[in-house]
Amino acid sequence: MIDSLWGALESGLLYAFMALGVYITFRILDFPDLTVDGSFTTGAAIAAVMISNGYSPILATLSGFGGGLVAGVCTGLLHTKGKINGLMSGILMMIALYSINMRIMSKPNISIYDMDSIFVSIQPLIIVPIIAIIVLVLLNRFLYSDIGLALRATGDNERMIRSFGANTDLTKIVGISLSNGLVALSGALIAQQSSFADINGGVGMIVIGLASVIIGEAVFGARNVIHHTISVVLGSIIYRIVVALALRVEWLEASDMKLITAIIVIIALVLPSTRRVIKQKKMAKKRSAEILHVGQKKTMGGGV
């Protein structure tokens, strides 16, 4: 039980980078980017190929991050310069990346077992939190910079920020690129942790990322950007812990993971709205009681 929880904590931290990438596109930019399923594998493929060819694991990880940046730029260009619908841009790039990733790997999967990786000399639970803190600090500094503020404003009201002279095409490309870079970073780290990269490793990543974002929001809320990014990381950890606990139920199997994910997302989506409705009903009842009380006092006053 303890081992599975430690494993869930480790996986949650590794997938947190992917969740942060999804947060940038879906929450900040309000852009439905499905490139994620492809760019995750791109990061894993580049890292695995470079490590298997004797390159430094750190260089391989950074190269995987760079591959995600390039994939994001392509999606951004399709949308901004090609004037293609955002959803369709992501789908087209996701499809293209399948063939590109196969070209990178030259085969459906690559094993890097017994090869050097970031986790050879340092345990994942030691180094990954450090990387997560560094990424959170850098990401929040970026989001509070001039271009980061323009990025957030583009997601809130694109027409207004464009009227102030901001280049919204550039901010979109930067945001989508950074998002897929973080997703690819997650893929590169997970490939090293699991000791292999698979061409289908990114399938369903967008759902996992959204689940982490939604769970983080539902449990911890979001008062500001810093609080929001931290809640996304914690949401990723909670998601992995819930999945690990669910898989310990006797009648559930590993093949049910997609079903478990769907159920978790549904609950996370329904709970906030349910709590909002209950809160509104309580406020309405309280208001009605106050109005009734005031009416009774006026009636009594008039009788006197």
Q: Would you give an account of this structure?
A:
This protein has eleven helices and two strands, in the order H-H-H-H-E-H-H-H-H-E-H-H-H. It has a domain at 2-201. Helices cover 78% and strands 2% of the residues. The longest helix has 47 residues, at 257-303. The model has no long low-confidence stretch (mean pLDDT 88). It has a two-stranded antiparallel sheet with strand order 1-2. The chain has 304 residues and is mainly α. Helix 10 (225-246) packs across helix 11 (257-303).
Q: Report helical residue fraction.
A: over 70%
Shape: globular
Q: Termini distance? A: 72 Å
Portion in strands: under 5%
Please give the radius of gyration in angstroms: 23 Å
Strand order of the largest sheet: 1-2
Mean of residue pLDDT values: 88
Parts with pLDDT < 50 across at least 5 consecutive residues: none
> Got a strand count?
2
Major pleated sheet: 2 strands, antiparallel
Secondary-structure-derived class: mainly alpha
Count of alpha/pi helices: 11
- Topology pattern, helix = H, strand = E: HHHHEHHHHEHHH
Main location: membrane
Membrane topology: Multi-pass membrane protein
Pfam family, one: BPD_transp_2
InterPro entries: ABC_transp_permease
